[in-house]
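Input:
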Amino acid sequence: MKKSTIITIVVVALVFLLFFGMYNGLVKKQEAVESQWAQVENVYQRRADLIPNLVETVKGYAAHEEGTFTAVTEARNNATKITIDPSNITPEQLEQFQAAQDQLSGALSRLLAVKEAYPDLKANENFLALQSQLEGTENRITVERKKFNETAQEYNQSIRMFPRNIIANMFGFEKVAYFKAQAGAETAPKVQF
Amino acid sequence: MMRKHFCLTLAFILIGVIGLAQNIPARPNPPRLVNDFAKILTDEQVQTLENKLVQFNDTTSTQICVVTINSLDGTTSNDYAQRLGEKWGVGNKEDNGVVILVKPKTVEESGDCSIQTGYGMEEYLTDAVCHHIIYDVLIPAFKENDYYGGIVKACDDIIALSTGKFTAAQYTEDDEEWTTKTYVGLALFILIAGVFLIAILLSIISVFTGRGGGKSGGSSYRGGGYGGGSSSWGGGSSSSSGGFGGFGGGHFGGGGASGKW
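Output:
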């Protein structure tokens, strides 16, 4: 074989290897986004799981706050209904998800505000424990959302940069959406004791 | 002209680095579990507590990191402690780290403290438990200005709660498993790369020798992936010298509690 042939073969082989490496890198980043999304859903689910207990406890002391209870229960049902396909996170879907969760946050803070009128509730051990769990969960939500945005940003950047964007186009790697920081969303809502 | 560009680039890089740092102090070197940046403990107290925590790390691989600071830089204590834990990598591969952050009370500002748990500690140190430690152990002592007493009692409680969770033996076992996985992944990768190289070589040779026009290449390569673990410098299990071996890259998900006094 001629020298030039060998050189061509080596170059072609190297380019192929490079492409495989890049493709695998993109798959890895995409999987990181998906698993981080799972974490986000986990912490929101964790919050949803706390709510029935919390509502029951508050009911025991403030039975006639019926409107607040139904608002929370409804918001919870709405929020848990929305699921997102993690392999295709579009801005519209994420916005919808976020809106439902924010509505639940609002309803929850009104539920917690009820305690001001009921000193017995405020001193209840069970209620205090639930409240601290809720506070921790709100923190977790903030953290996982932040981590999701970071992972998504890294992925989005890598599918747009040359030469990986060629591969991203070829295999249909789509941009994923971010959580939008809203006023006060950066820090978890403060649960007052 | 060149020089100006160079300076500009340098400035941007510097800004970037500072921006990333987010005012969280850098990981201490040599690594230490007790970091009294606010200077509210005596050297002797720091050493005693450090020894206790290092010993706990050596026997269980769980890392409790105590940090005192003078300013939260405008964020909440939970957020600060979570980011610090994540940045320093407190805990080992099971994410079994705990950060106890204390910002002492000053004349102008109220005191603030937080306990943040790594993912692996959440089931042992639930938010309610952390809340209990903060309001019934830390803050009562801090109100008496007994920072050391409060922190030691909190550490004792955390140790009692999490004892038996991870043994050092379990930790080393996992470590071995990880290395074999890496080798298998590497071997697989070499194998696949080799097969592709040969395939490419063959197809090119066939083109050059001109026999058979059929292009047989093009087998689409879908998501095989070689499971090389991401590099984690999770050393720190050496219990020989008695000193702290280092943080093991644990992650924090925001679990825990905080309180002000």
